[in-house]
Each structure stands twice: as C-alpha cells, then as structure tokens.
Amino acid sequence: MEGVTSRTLLLSQGYEPIKVISWQRAITLLFLGKVEVVEEYTDDIRSVTLVIKIPAVVRLLRAFRRHAKPVKFSRVNIYARDHYRCQYCGKKAGMPELTYDHVVPRSQGGRTDWTNIVTACYDCNRKKGGRTPKQAGMHLLSQPVQPNWVPAMTIRISTRSVPEAWQDYLYWTGELRED
Question: Where are the domains of the chain?
C-alpha cells in the first residue's frame, strides 16, 4: 500500500484541508470517533474479522483549538514575520537572497532572540557590518518583536501526485501546471 493510497487528506469541520496524514492515523482517528470518512480508495485493509476501505479523505467531527504555544524562533519564522523583506532597504526577496542580522551586534552584547534579529539582504548586512544601525547610518523599517501568531501553513503537493479523491477538497490558486 505504498504511494497514493498510503496518504489521507485531513479536513477541518468546515471541509478545509489541514494536513496530510498516514492512512493508519486516519483509521485510528476513525475508531476514536474523531473523524468521518468522506472519500475512500478502492484498496482494502483486511483483518480476520474486518474489511475496511482505505480512507482517502477524512473530516474532523469537532473543531479543535490549538494550544497557544510561543512561536518557535527560527530563520524561516523571522523571514515570515518580516514578510521576506530586508528591514533596512525594504527589498523583498526569496530565502536564498536573505539572511538575518543582529540589530545590536553580538560583539556589543546583542542577543540572538526575536527582539534583536531582523531579515536583511546580503548588501545591507555587509554595509551594516558589526555596528548598530545608528553607528552604520542606517534605519530599521520596523522594530523586531516576538510574534504571537504562527505563519500561515501551506500544504505543498505536486499536481502529479494529488489523488483523484482529494481534488474536490483542495483549493487551487493561480494556474495549475503539471510538474
């Protein structure tokens, strides 16, 4: 049961895609009464006393609240907080063109935390060097803060590997292209 039928799409109560889980996890959630099966694959799971179709799409029966955890400090979350924009010149760029910068350099006692790290392009990071923005004659577009939100989660799936059973539950933005 490798490949397409080994994955199950988990939907929220309102039929919004949440994530992809294993078919084993889907079966566990089904027997715990936490989900209903919306779509099935043609393959079966067999035991001595039971034959069940592998779930392709399942929907949570009750809404769940994620416990408020502090946002993890990471490079990706810093870029997301700063909207993938250099906090000195405002240039928007992809991850390969960005780095992060200590506002107060470590050599001057600056810490590596949410309130002292900003997204920077390589040119601005070099220009600033081991100085504070004021010492370098540069201006921060926004003061760094610890976010209280988690950046939007995206489920990335190749159009070639999307099971047919999922197609009615995925929302496509832009133009679909075969990978």
Answer: 3-66+155-169, 75-136
| pTM for this predicted structure | 0.53
Distance from C-alpha of 63 to C-alpha of 51, rounded to nearest angstrom: 29
**Cβ atoms of residues 164 and 39 within 8 Å:** no
Burial class (CB in 10 A: 0-12, 13-18, 19+), 140: middle
H or E, element range at 21: strand 17-22
E strands along 84-152, which residues? 98-102, 117-121
- Say how far apart CA 5 and CA 141 lie, in whole Å: 48
Instruction: Report the top-level CATH class of 75-136.
Output: mainly alpha
Share of the chain above pLDDT 90, in %: 61
Neighbours of 71 (CB within 10 A): 16
Among candidates 132, 142, 51, 39, which has minimal Cα distance to 88?
A: 142
Average pLDDT of the segment spanning 157-168: 73
- In eight-state DSSP terms, residue 92 is B
A 10 A CB-CB count for 26 gives 22
Structure tokens at 158: 């190749």
Q: How far is CA 30 from CA 19, 37, 57, 94, in A?
A: 16, 8, 11, 40
